[in-house]
From TrEMBL:
Pfam families: BrnA_antitoxin. It comes from the Bacteria. This is BrnA antitoxin family protein.
Length: 88
């Protein structure tokens, strides 16, 4: 026989193999990037008022949010763009 048969020789073994649970490989451990200045794409939910505040100065609002968060973790005071002399 040059060509193998189209059906498996043991139909019971073929049926058991079809319904056997598939073992998924373990997810690889994700290590944080060590390169400085590399940005990670994330999805975050923030209040509309916060988003409006950072977007009112135009393009670059994502950088302004990143800068504000960076100053918080570094312990520096937060100063946003634009002339904010309303409170004075």
């Amino acid at each position: 026989m040059a060509n193998p048969p189209r059906r498996p020789t043991n139909p019971m073994a073929a049926a058991e193999a079809a319904f056997k649970p598939v073992k998924k490989p373990a997810a690889p451990v994700r290590e944080p990037t060590a390169a400085p200045g590399v940005r990670e794409l994330v999805s975050i939910r923030i209040d509309r008022a916060v988003l409006d505040h950072f977007q009112e100065d135009g393009p670059g609002w994502q950088d302004r949010i990143n800068d504000a968060l960076r100053r918080v973790i570094e312990g520096k005071p937060i100063v946003t763009g634009g002339d904010r002399s309303d409170d004075e």
